Inverse folding.
């Protein structure tokens, strides 16, 4: 900074202050002058004006104090009592301060507080060079990038670099920190990292680990760098290092991770993953891996590829891509992801959607791979255009009040090409178009493709007769072109059609009670009748059915079906305590008959029951210092079965295929009180961040327990074929300790199919997570211990897995 500029600024400000009192921060009770001064001491101002350099940065300083002693000739200023100096983004507060304008240096005496570009420092006897923005302070403490630092001396050796001798570092905000790192030498790179030599890690005043060298990232946001690897050992891989990876973010649009797993006994695995997004345009992810797998059968090389992409195109159209391919299921053995380790099918697709008037045009392709049977199905392409049911009067721009307002139409178009591949080494033409017979069975194909075009259209008329009877009439027609039929005739055509008539109405019943807890019960019955006529389409048996292309192949039918839907609704209480339960109980029954069938025209009678009382408040439980409040219980069940009406007799209801499921859930809140909270670090409260005083703190956390039971029985529920029990629970045992648990138990075989448990312990500055999962013959566990402020830099973890 130019000294002459500072002196000129002092002169201008002093003159201005003679007539402007609002620029003075505090009154100056006493100004001492020991040398000749051309200015009246009483006119000294306690601040300097602001000057800006060519770049717009502050190029001057402010100062204030209770009293000031100035030496004009030597360009020195002494400040006494509540001294404050501001320069740019730096501030110094001290009891007394010496300012050398000639050398542009500041020296404080006694306890000193400093703010430097968002960093807080407290110490004694500061020496600060204003020009170079460097300095040091003794017996120092600082708060930088969410971390607390202290040492015998802190030196600012660069614009964003600090050195600390015999320093300590912690992210714990307690007055007595639960952990810290002690180092002979510490260097802090602001907004970057902390580096230390000869570091001891202390937990509760006990040294537990020594690091000859340590580097901890304190960067905020997405930053490129190496990720923390995971070393370990298990009985399959031997010693291993997983996730040896580098991370690179590209602007605000994408993240890239390139990594590798190294296994002592089973080889290696290279990985690449990326996620990307551009708002209002596209988003997606990409994961690929290549593995060398060594086992008793030899050495295999496998790969996997997963990708998803969504792209918003003009005119509200969209493109979606989903890819999921692997060379062999070996690459997912031992995976932590359930959908990988237990995968039996893979599906990849690409689809394009474009709105056309009030309809959508869709085009796409699908590839499905059966990992168990090693077969694949492909649909390439699949094109459809659907006009859902629309009123006819819209075609003529007529008003909705015209006499044919209930007349509606629909139209669907679909083009499909499908392929079936049952070969271990398909060629390119096998995916595009090929029909290869099975040499062992001429009636079957190893590779088989079909193509076809289908059009569906229909008219319907709906109206309400006398305000209570709903009537609907409809006619449907389908036409399909096939590439060939079963007689190998090329480009053949077929069709089918049907007509239907259905009607329904509602019957309501209401019962009120004057004094009972149940104030009203409402019963609704909806009978329905449907008649459908389908002509004889048995000639269509010569056509194939594939994808969304097919025709009816039935004989002549006249199906008459009856249905009865019932539901009961309940109103509990009165006035402010009134509560409604919609659909407390429902009962649906259906039966149909083929009027063209002479022998046993009726089908099975089906029933479906559901009981849904909803949730009930159970109040609270309190005893000997603990309390559970907001207790709630909810319950629901469902029962379905069919009856063979020709087997019903006085001794048997001919009930078959019974399925029953029920779920009960308990939930509530558990208040937790901390009667002796540890006091917070108050060192930097002088900067305006006053911590809370220690006092009893109370918090409330929710918990839940859910149990689901289902069973299936061909005849009697007392002799079920399957019976399963599933449980899910989540609790906070204490304010800092939570547990979640789930399982799947086969009651019929008395076998635990799967279970998982997760324990989480909040250790204030740290968190400990334990996860264990068992699925059939496979189990794995993971233990992770990490710092909540720096979860990537300060992270320790181990895991193991095994397949029996």
């Amino acid at each position: 900074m130019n000294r002459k500029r500072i002196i000129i600024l002092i002169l201008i400000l002093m003159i201005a202050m003679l007539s402007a009192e609002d620029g003075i921060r505090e009154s100056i009770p006493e100004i001492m002058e020991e040398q000749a001064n051309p200015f009246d001491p009483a006119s000294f101002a306690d601040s300097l004006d602001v000057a800006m350099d060519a770049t717009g940065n502050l190029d001057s300083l402010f100062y204030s104090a209770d009293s000031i002693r100035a030496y004009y000739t030597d360009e020195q200023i002494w400040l006494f009592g509540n001294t404050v100096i501001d320069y740019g983004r730096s501030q110094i507060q001290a009891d007394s301060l010496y300012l050398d304008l000639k050398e542009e240096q500041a020296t404080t005496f006694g306890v000193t507080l400093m703010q430097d570009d968002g960093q807080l420092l407290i110490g004694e006897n500061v020496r600060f060079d204003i020009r170079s923005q460097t300095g040091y302070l003794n017996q120092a403490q600082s708060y930088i990038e969410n971390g607390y630092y202290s040492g015998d001396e802190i030196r600012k050796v660069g614009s964003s670099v600090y050195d600390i001798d015999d320093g300590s570092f912690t992210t714990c905000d307690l007055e007595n920190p639960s952990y810290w790192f002690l180092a002979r030498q510490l260097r802090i790179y602001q907004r970057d990292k902390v580096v230390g030599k000869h570091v001891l890690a202390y937990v509760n005043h006990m040294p537990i680990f020594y690091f000859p060298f340590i580097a901890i990232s304190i960067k905020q946001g997405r930053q490129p760098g190496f990720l923390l690897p995971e070393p370990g050992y298990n009985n399959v891989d031997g010693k291993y290092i997983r996730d040896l990876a580098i991370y690179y973010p590209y602007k605000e649009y994408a993240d890239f991770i390139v990594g590798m797993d190294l296994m002592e006994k089973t080889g290696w695995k290279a990985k690449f993953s990326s996620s990307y997004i551009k708002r209002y345009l596209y988003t997606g992810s990409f994961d690929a891996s290549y593995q060398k797998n060594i086992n008793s059968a030899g050495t295999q090389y496998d790969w996997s590829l997963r990708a998803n992409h969504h792209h918003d195109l003009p005119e509200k159209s969209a493109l979606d891509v989903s890819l999921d391919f692997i060379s062999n299921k070996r690459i997912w053995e031992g995976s932590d992801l359930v959908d990988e380790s237990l995968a039996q099918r893979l599906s990849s697709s690409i689809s394009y959607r474009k709105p056309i008037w009030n309809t959508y045009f869709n085009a796409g392709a699908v590839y499905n791979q059966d990992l168990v049977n090693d077969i694949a199905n492909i649909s390439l392409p699949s094109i459809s255009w659907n006009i859902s049911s629309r009123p006819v009067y819209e075609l003529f721009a007529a008003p909705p009040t015209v006499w044919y307002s209930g007349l509606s139409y629909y139209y669907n178009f679909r083009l499909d090409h499908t392929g079936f591949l049952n070969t271990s080494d398909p060629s390119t033409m096998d995916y595009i178009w090929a029909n290869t017979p099975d040499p062992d069975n001429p009636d079957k194909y190893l590779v088989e493709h079909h193509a076809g075009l289908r059009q569906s259209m229909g008219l319907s008329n709906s109206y309400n007769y006398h305000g209570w009877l709903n009537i609907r009439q409809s006619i449907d027609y389908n036409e399909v072109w096939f590439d060939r039929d079963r007689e190998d005739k090329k480009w053949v055509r077929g069709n089918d059609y049907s007509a239907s008539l259905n009607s329904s109405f509602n019957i309501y019943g209401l019962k009120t009670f004057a004094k009972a807890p149940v104030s009203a019960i409402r019963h609704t019955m909806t009978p329905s009748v449907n008649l459908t006529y389908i002509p004889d389409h048995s000639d269509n048996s010569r056509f194939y059915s594939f994808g969304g292309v097919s025709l009816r192949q039935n004989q002549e039918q006249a199906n008459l079906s009856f249905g009865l839907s019932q539901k009961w609704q309940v109103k509990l209480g009165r006035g402010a305590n009134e509560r409604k339960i919609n659909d407390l109980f429902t009962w649906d029954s259906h039966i149909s008959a083929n009027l063209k069938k002479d022998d046993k025209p009726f089908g099975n009678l089906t029933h479906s029951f559901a009981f849904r009382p909803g949730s009930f408040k159970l109040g609270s439980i309190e005893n000997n210092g603990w309390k559970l409040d907001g207790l709630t219980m909810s319950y629901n069940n469902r029962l379905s079965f069919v009856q063979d009406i020709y087997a019903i007799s006085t001794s048997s209801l001919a009930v078959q295929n019974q399925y029953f499921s029920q779920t009960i859930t308990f939930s509530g809140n558990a208040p937790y009180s901390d009667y002796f909270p540890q006091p917070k670090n108050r060192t930097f409260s002088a900067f305006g961040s006053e911590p809370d005083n220690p006092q009893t703190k109370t918090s409330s956390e929710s918990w839940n327990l859910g149990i689901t039971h289902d069973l299936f029985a061909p005849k009697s529920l007392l002799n079920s074929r399957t019976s399963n029990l599933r449980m899910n629970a989540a609790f906070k045992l204490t304010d800092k300790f939570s547990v979640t648990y789930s399982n799947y138990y086969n009651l019929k075989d008395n076998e635990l199919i799967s279970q998982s448990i997760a324990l989480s312990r909040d250790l204030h500055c740290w968190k400990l997570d334990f996860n264990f999962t068992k699925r059939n013959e496979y189990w794995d566990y993971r233990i992770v211990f990490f710092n909540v402020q720096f979860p990537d830099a300060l992270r320790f973890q181990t895991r193991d897995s095994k397949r029996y």
In short: The longest helix spans residues 3-17.
